[in-house]
Amino acid sequence: MIVIFGASTDIGALLSEKLRAAGVPIRCISRQGEALADLSSGVGVRDSMKDADAVVSCAHARFTASIIRNLPSRSVLLVLMGSAWRYSRVPNQRADEVRKAEADFLACNHNGVMLHATMIYGGSQENNIQRLLAAIRRFPVLPVPGGGHQIVQPIYIDDVVDCLLAAVRTNWVGRHVVGLAGRPLSWRAMAKLCAKGIDRRCAFIPVPKSLILAAVFLLNRLRSAQIDAGIVERFDENVDIPWSHMMEMFAVEPREFEVGIRLAIDNWRGQGVL
């Protein structure tokens, strides 16, 4: 029995679909759905894993401790989603939560793997690329900290799910940490491919990061939905996660962003999201 937390997330739903198609017995856990449990309070978590052979978490990494604390005393395979925020040098609560989750996982006595994925795109719930597409559609010129020359490695959702599927089928010995990343390109190149995908032209104007941060500060004072200033701070960072490791571990080769963004846009249009 494979127990899946975060089964209502984009990656959780796709993984569940693939496992069901393969005839693998699974239990999908969420606060609403087939089986109920609340990772925040811990209610129902222990009971949901009583007969688990493997536990997959597609939920936020902050819930890792709750999962580990409620595992059966016998050996259970763990496959946990973290985040590439773990590698960021920008002071940020999300990065701290992922690093703590990794430490909790490495300190437990169950075999398995934690996967730290870079920016995942292509699902209906993701918002980074969808926000960028919305901005490109609305504005012919976009201000970008530093001109967008930093390196990014967005990864298509199906590639992440294929890695999860391979991880569940691996007989892990000990605890492992693996980064999942797409092929590297500059943020500017990524944005241009996004514009091309929706038949738009957009100019990207270099702007000092301090001005963007000031604008974020003012907007956060005026609106309830907060913009994470850490996202702006990360424009100074280059993502550098070798995707060759992902290929070696899971035999999954990440697709080119130009290919993935075309698939994503077609899917979003079909769903009425875009």
Structure report:
The chain has 274 residues and is an alpha/beta fold. It has one domain: NAD(P)-binding Rossmann-like Domain (Rossmann fold, 3-Layer(aba) Sandwich), CATH 3.40.50.720. Helices cover 41% and strands 18% of the residues. The protein has eleven helices and 13 strands. The strands form four sheets. Strands 3-2-1-4-5-6-11 form a seven-stranded parallel β-sheet, with helices on both faces. Strands 7-10 form a two-stranded parallel ribbon. Strands 8-13 form a two-stranded parallel ribbon. Strand 5 (77-81), helix 4 (93-107) and strand 6 (112-117) form a beta-alpha-beta unit. Helix 1 crosses helix 6 (157-168). The chain is globular, with a radius of gyration of 19 Å.
Short description:
The protein is an alpha/beta fold and 274 residues long. It has 11 helices and 13 strands. The model has no long low-confidence stretch (mean pLDDT 89).
Top keywords for this entry?
11 helices, 13 strands, two-stranded parallel sheet, Rossmann fold, 274 residues, 7-stranded parallel β-sheet, alpha/beta, single chain
Structural shape: globular
Overall structural class, as computed from helix and strand content, comes to alpha/beta
CATH structural fold name: Rossmann fold
What is the CATH top level name?
A: Alpha Beta
Radius of gyration: 19 Å
Task: Please outline the helices and strands.
Layout: E1 2-5, H1 10-21, E2 26-30, E3 35-36, H2 45-48, E4 54-57, H3 64-69, E5 77-81, H4 93-107, E6 112-117, E7 120-121, H5 128-138, E8 141-145, E9 151-152, E10 155-156, H6 157-168, E11 175-180, E12 185-186, H7 187-197, E13 203-207, H8 209-222, H9 229-233, H10 243-250, H11 257-271
Parallel strand pairs: 1-2, 1-4, 2-3, 4-5, 5-6, 6-11, 7-10, 8-13
Antiparallel strand pairs: 9-12
Helix pairs in contact: 1-6, 7-11
